[in-house]
Write a structure and sequence with these properties.
- By secondary structure, this protein is mainly beta.
- 2% of the residues lie in helices and 47% in strands.
- The chain has a domain of 142 residues: Immunoglobulin-like (Sandwich).
- Strands 1, 39, 42, 45, 46, 48 and 49 form a seven-stranded antiparallel beta sheet that branches.
- The termini are far apart.
């Protein structure tokens, strides 16, 4: 059974495609690196998994040089030892952590994780479990209470778990449901847990044997790798499935019950069909339903590897590598992560055909090269390589932080944290006015917390001779219809701060009106405004509002602007 999504699932994703994105300013810290001491354990030797959340909360799984190989793996959270291989667990009784399993973990803004632990001190049929931090949520061998399974169906293994800030946990599980012909059956199960890790509910989103909407063949399996499925705060699930039937059309990607892509069907590239959407491809989903995935087109193979964001190609093999001199073209995107922040910015690993292979890879934010091997210097140490596999990087939902695995010339393997500030990104969807105007918001200049550089917010293409204003919030983006019949959306979460009303100027009934806010002047004149005082790395979300008497609610709105301040 597949839970039905809200009617706006895919349209909602389109609202959060960045319409324009300024380059960010970057600064670096090194949370963990080879040779770092973990008190009571040993020195870090290798980095296994990295994660980061809003607020810069980070987590690193690492190996150490402890002589006891049953107690040398650790999980560090914001510099403290959070968990260790060999630690005793409260449940099941007598169990200890054998290993932290595959698939890594994602960390919530509250600093919690959901993970598949393997256990010592348990039987071979009960020796793994899904944990919320170190609290057992579901154990291998336990019977699922999800109503979509046949009564008595047990869990017989797990391929990892992903947590959302709403304490939703998506699990890729193996189960044994007597109603499914195979002895090992796969299912995507959404768990709701309390803030202490207590299991509140289980819901099967999709399982082996299901007939997905629009298909004639049932599900044979799912992508089980760490980037083959994703979940967001809304509870939406993005996943890759393999169907029974012809191998030319059996690979599919779904967002809830909406088909996004299928092998043999047309791709976003004119004249090219999808050749492979196999379970080795990768997906990403943000908290507002924006999605991205990788896939292969049909021949020729020189430009068949692509990354798609919200239905459009965002990066493609054969394209010029952005930000790189020499005219080199992209050859691959690795086999690790792709990611999206909540403003819809895309983060990806790129490899290009520079014959100097010591400097031919990097990590991108949209088209901005954030780091490049053999070129970037991190706190005085040359970055000699960037991981391209498994959990190689992760971005925080607010887009302020990115953590990645790399090798530094001075200290070997390292987890490296990038703070990204000074960015503006347009997102959400503007309304269309009575006279056919579509307003567009943008940031002009560099947003500075210290007001060191000029910065203004401008809304152009507004109807002339109307009264309007710019307003903002500091609680995050939104995408709520302005009214049932309006084409506008409210793109800013409450509470909001209004700025002074102003005339749009221009000519009545034409689209040459403008709203403009000199940010530095506004803050100078309004010291108690919402969010003040702003600090480097702080964010706000802004939008333009203006009168349009014949329109629903007699008003219309621009799209939204996400702003991250630099020092």
């Amino acid at each position: 059974m597949l839970n039905q999504p809200t009617p706006r699932t895919v349209v909602f994703a389109a609202w959060f495609t960045p319409l324009a994105s300024a380059q960010v300013q970057t600064s670096f810290t090194i949370p963990a690196k080879g040779g770092d001491s973990v008190p009571g354990v040993g020195l870090v030797t290798t980095i296994e998994t990295v994660a980061v959340a809003n607020g810069g909360v980070w987590m690193v799984e690492a190996d150490t040089d402890n002589a006891n190989t049953d107690a040398d793996q650790v999980v560090l959270r914001n510099g403290a030892l959070a968990s260790r291989q060999g630690d005793a667990l409260a449940a099941p009784a007598g169990a200890t952590i054998s290993s932290f399993g595959s698939g890594g973990a994602r960390i919530s803004a509250a600093g919690n994780w959901a993970w598949n632990y393997f256990l010592d001190g348990a039987t071979s049929t009960t020796d793994s479990g899904i944990y919320f931090d170190n609290t057992l949520v579901i154990q291998e061998g336990s019977v699922s209470l999800a109503p979509q399974f046949t009564a008595g169906t047990p869990y017989i293994g797990f391929f990892g778990a992903k947590i959302a800030d709403s304490n939703l946990v998506l699990v890729m599980a193996s189960i044994d449901d007597v109603a499914i012909a195979s002895t090992v059956d796969r299912a995507l199960v959404r768990l709701l847990v309390s803030s202490s890790g207590a299991l509140l509910s289980e819901t099967v989103l999709a399982k082996e044997g299901d007939l997905l909407p629009g298909q004639t063949e049932t599900v044979a399996d799912f992508a089980t790798g760490p980037h083959g499925w994703d979940v967001n705060d809304l509870g939406q699930a993005l996943f890759i499935a393999d169907l029974n039937g012809a191998t030319t059309s059996d690979g599919v990607i779904y967002l809830d019950s909406t088909l996004l892509a299928q092998e043999g069907a047309p791709s976003p590239v004119a004249g090219r069909n999808w050749s492979s959407l196999s379970t080795s491809q990768r997906v990403a989903l943000n908290n507002f339903g924006a999605y991205a995935f990788t896939g292969l087109l049909d021949a020729p193979t020189t430009d068949d590897n692509v990354i798609v964001r919200n239905g459009a190609v965002a990066a493609r093999e054969g394209d010029l590598a952005p930000g790189v001199s020499g005219g080199w073209t992209l050859t691959s995107f690795g086999t690790g992560a792709i990611d999206l922040d909540d403003a819809g910015n895309l983060y990806w690993f790129g490899d290009w055909n520079d014959p100097d292979t010591s400097r031919d890879t990097g990590i991108y934010r949209n088209d901005q090269l954030l780091v490049q091997e053999g070129v970037s210097v991190i706190n005085g140490q040359l970055l000699t390589s960037i991981a391209s596999v498994q959990e190689n990087f992760m971005v925080s939902p607010d887009g302020r932080w990115l953590i990645f695995e790399g090798v530094l010339a001075g200290s070997g393997q390292a987890a490296i944290l990038i703070e990204m500030t000074g960015a503006t990104s347009a997102y959400c969807t503007a309304g269309t006015t009575t006279n056919g105007c579509t307003p567009s918001i943008a940031g002009v200049g560099s947003p500075s917390a210290s007001l060191a550089t000029p910065f203004s917010i401008q809304v152009s293409n507004v109807e002339g001779q109307k009264l309007g204003l710019v307003f903002y919030g500091v609680s995050g983006p939104l995408a709520t219809p302005w009214s049932t019949s309006s084409t506008s959306f409210l793109c800013v979460k409450t509470p909001t701060q209004r700025t002074a009303a102003q005339s749009t100027g221009g000519v009545n009934a034409q689209c040459n009106g403008v709203l403009s806010l000199d940010w530095n002047a506004f803050i100078g004149a309004t010291p108690g405004a919402l969010g003040t005082p702003f600090a480097s790395g702080d964010s706000l979300w802004a939008q333009g509002w203006f009168r349009d008497p014949p329109a629903p609610k007699t008003t219309n709105l621009s799209d939204g602007l996400a702003v991250v301040f630099e020092p």
